[in-house]
What we know:
By secondary structure, the protein is α/β, with parallel strands linked by helices. Strand 5 (190-194), helix 7 (201-212) and strand 6 (217-220) form a beta-alpha-beta unit. It is built from eleven helices and 16 strands. The model has no long low-confidence stretch (mean pLDDT 97). Bound molecules: 5-S-methyl-1-O-phosphono-5-thio-D-ribulose (MRU). 5-S-methyl-1-O-phosphono-5-thio-D-ribulose (MRU) binds at residues 50-53, 98, 162, 164, 168-169, 174, 201, 240-242, 252-253, 318. 5-S-methyl-1-O-phosphono-5-thio-D-ribulose (MRU) binds next to helix 2 and strand 9.
Amino acid sequence: MAFESKIKTIEWVDNYSRMVDQTVVPYEYKFVNITDGEQMFNAIRDMIVRGAPAIGIAGAHGAVLFAQQLAKEGLNRDEFVQKLIEKAEYMKTSRPTAVNLMWACQKQIEVIKNSASDIAGIIEELKQNAIKLENEDIEINKKIGDYGAEVVPKGATILTHCNAGALATVGYGTALGVVRSAFAKDNTVQVFADETRPRQQGARITTFELAMDGIPVTLITDGMCSYFMKKGMIDMVVVGADRIAANGDTANKIGTYTVAIAAKYHNIPFYIAAPLSTIDTSISSGDEIVIEERSREEVTHINGKIICSDKVNVINPGFDVTPHELIAGIITEKGILRPDYNKSIAEVFNTSKS
Length: 354
Ligand code: MRU
């Protein structure tokens, strides 16, 4: 059963992209208009838009924006196509870990390569494809939500890490899509949200969007999860994913791995919720996933204020990889994949080639 969420994170409007500025949530809930390709590259890199599926759509919008710009340069069709493919490839490099970005840019490259139209026609096809991907994202999330809701016990407390919600997608969310669908069936379900240092997506974004939708949420800091697990206060864990390897190893926001280990120790099921576009069957294990390194200021500062010695060394990987043995299931739009993931992932791709 679908819950109606009020949030639409990113949307193509006429000839530009409109998105929620996630750098200012929850202090402000405002939209920014992205009107050229380079601006989109920066919006992804600087996390104005974030979350794997949302940055995928942003990449698709970026390709349309670059196409609109190149159309003004007086190029012939062949030159236009070649330069546009280069720009779409460049857009893939705006962040390294979430594979949805590469996936969606590649979808746009296929549109360009397969088009028989003139320049104006190619732009229109790219626009229509971006809008299609946008609409599909919400539909896919609702399916993920409904499959996931089937494994949520009555009155469950669900722990989540980072934000895999409406604001990490076009709308509805993956992990929080499961929460929304479960809550629609049983309004005694509630969420515990990890703060998720360093950028605090759990505190800033997950609590904001759940409160906006009237879903009960309790904020905890990252180190608290095992304390509440031991007390029997967590029934299951559901998180999103940025890239899933063919064997089920899953990259998600830094700290996810720790939660998964704690869940295993306490015999609590740990689920990943993600669309099939997050599964990268070209890599056999999580060892091949490139982990984004982010700035030292994300760690040394909170809200612009330094919280440590300015001489301290900092390492700031944005993601970690949870080994497949810790994952009870991967909730997708085609159902819940179970171990052995090498088999279940291969099977789902064989039966649902898109
Ligand atoms: O760095 P972010 O905020 O883009 O990282 C997001 C996450 O790690 C999410 O948990 C993940 O993308 C899943 S989004 C549905």
